[in-house]
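Duplicate of #3305? Posting structure anyway:
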């Protein structure tokens, strides 16, 4: 496969995973803003998913419709959901010979959905949850279409590498946004912990696994280490290693060994760590290390496989 094609498919995987993660977190935070009397605010998400100055963020944060517009529909915000979908569709258009027509159609439908005026009107005014659900359902449709129609060839491997690398980064960044929950004492039953689990689609598994109150150490254990939880850091890294190993016969030996080493290094950092809540500063240092190692993986893919070095 041409390195340009591999790069384009890899970024398609990243853009679409980022879209799904953003929509889920935004949806949950909107619900929290309506249900929690002491809602903690939109500031963290505006910093994570926006490109505004501190002054503009302070002006926009108190106004939920403005926040939703900026994070989802704003064509001037290079990090918005709209831009991720547009970039994903552009990438898919460039590699139509390497994806199925059904995958292309699902992305094209997604693009037209987010451009519809009635979708923005619903999400920003009438019923934000229903609007976010409609966008999320299209994201789920894309995922299912990939799973059921894509051949398990080289392109599929790059799509999966992009997906799970982005998922690992999103999990790290969401934990960093919520780092204060794990540095403090007496955060059991904190509504923020519950919404963090909802944002990662992990609340149901948490309740089934721990069968008790929500406490910071158990949440951290689930999100970092549970290999059965699809959004845990460990699961994403194990999937990255799995798809990397399937590239072995399609790679130059030295490129494969370097990429596998870097993914294995990040996986080992997570698997052999013992993070607990109430270790001031430790989680931030750990997440910074893992994020750096994930960025080393992205650089290796870019330099060794995509010829961008």
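Output from current build:
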């Amino acid at each position: 496969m041409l390195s340009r094609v591999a790069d384009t498919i890899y970024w398609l995987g990243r853009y679409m995973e980022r879209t799904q993660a953003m929509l889920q977190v935004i949806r949950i935070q909107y619900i929290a803003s309506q249900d929690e009397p002491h809602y903690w605010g939109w500031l963290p998400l505006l910093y994570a998913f926006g490109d505004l100055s501190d002054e503009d963020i302070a002006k926009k944060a108190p106004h939920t419709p403005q926040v939703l517009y900026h994070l989802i529909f704003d064509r001037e915000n290079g990090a918005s959901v709209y831009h991720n979908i547009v970039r994903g569709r552009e990438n898919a258009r460039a590699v139509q010979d390497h994806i199925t027509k059904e995958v292309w159609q699902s992305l094209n439908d997604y693009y037209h959905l987010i451009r519809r005026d009635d979708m923005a009107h619903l999400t920003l005014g009438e019923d934000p949850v229903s609007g976010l659900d409609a966008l999320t359902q299209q994201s789920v449709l894309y995922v299912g279409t990939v799973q059921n129609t894509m051949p398990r060839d080289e392109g599929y491997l790059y799509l999966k590498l992009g997906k799970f690398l982005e998922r690992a980064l999103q999990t790290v960044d969401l934990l960093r946004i919520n780092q204060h929950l794990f540095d403090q004492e007496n955060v059991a039953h904190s509504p923020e912990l519950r919404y963090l689990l909802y944002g990662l689609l992990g609340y149901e598994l948490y309740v089934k696994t721990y069968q008790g109150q929500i406490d910071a150490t158990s949440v951290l254990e689930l999100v970092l280490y549970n290999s059965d939880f699809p959004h845990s850091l460990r699961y994403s890294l194990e999937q990255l290693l799995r798809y990397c190993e399937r590239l072995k016969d399609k790679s130059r030996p030295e490129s494969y060994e370097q990429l596998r080493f870097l993914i294995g290094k990040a996986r080992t950092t997570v698997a052999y760590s013992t993070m607990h809540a109430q270790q001031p500063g430790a989680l931030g240092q750990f997440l910074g290390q893992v994020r750096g190692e994930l960025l080393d993986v992205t650089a290796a893919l870019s330099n060794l496989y995509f010829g961008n070095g």
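Confirmed duplicate; merging threads. Residues 3-35 form the longest helix (33 residues). Residues 163-309 form one domain.
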